[in-house]
Amino acid sequence: MKLIISSSELLKGIMAVSKAIPAKSSLPILENFLFDLKGNTLEITASDSELTLRTRLTVESADSDGRIAVPARHMQDLLKEIPDQPITIQTIKENYFECSWMGGASTLPYFSADEYPQITTTEEGAITVKFPAQTFVDGISSTIYATDDDEMRPVMNGILFDMSGAGTTLVASDSRKLICFTTTEVKTEEQSSFILHKKPAAVLRSIIGKDTEEITVTYDGKNAVFAFDETIAVCRLIVGRYPKYRDVIPQNNSNVLKIDRQQLLNCVRRVSVCANKASNHIKFDLQSNSLTVSAQDLGFSIAAHEKSVCQYDGEDLQIGFKSTFLVDILSNLGSSEVTIKFSDARRAALLLPSEDGDQTEKICAILMPIQI
Question: What are the φ/ψ torsions at residue 265 (nearest 5 degrees)?
């Protein structure tokens, strides 16, 4: 195996897949990149068995095809120190390869590609849909923070992609807050869904470039393949039944608050400084066109309150929330004004961006109250 390639292009390629390299694995071979040279195309694969990333690069020249597994950390560290220039990679003797550049060379061990596990992808009959790249990234960004870390209910540790002829909704919940991101740009002929674990979701969000226009998603009951540019990601899906999230979205909320989102976010942050650090409880006291946010920690004899002018239509209402959850939601809604709808102090509040915005995308958040 011998090839010549730009050092910066190779570094870009391995960095695109390096997030799938496990820090420590029961299979040491997974701590390597798999290099597969065919003609003038170098395919680089990285995997932790749950997530596999693969990208393709065009090499400047190649003398012979081959497949080897090369140490991931050493290759990354070496390429980061080499200025942009053509480098030559070639196997020189059994289990060793040489990476040479202008005036220097490094000899590193390689491992047999046959030891690298076969990557399982989707089966025949899998469903394929196309996502606008920005919509995909926005959907993950808008929901991922609401996922849970629950070993007993693994389905809550991921994002549900719920697709139908009407559109696609991404859903995440930790049972105390629930976020729905809906787009009408992605539709399927029949109702279908899958649950993507938050770890590969976060990786996908980070590696999809601003110049990427479209992502092709192919999925079955066990795996999903995300293809974009010259990269594919194979993700093992969470198997299970997601709760009926639509049933918990509150309806007919007669008490409606409209307020500047940043104003409310800053207010909650200031007041919550004096909230009990274990519970982070704050209280909303709503009256006609007036909102008072308060918190206290009886253990340290501290308290805070702040009154804000707002638009409120409804009955006088006192309701409590966990401040950290409210800060998360307000930080991610991304609108200048937010609408919060209440039924009463015991039922979930519905948070929505006030602006109509792009009608192809909608987002809503549900936050359970706490007893005050």
Answer: -60, -45
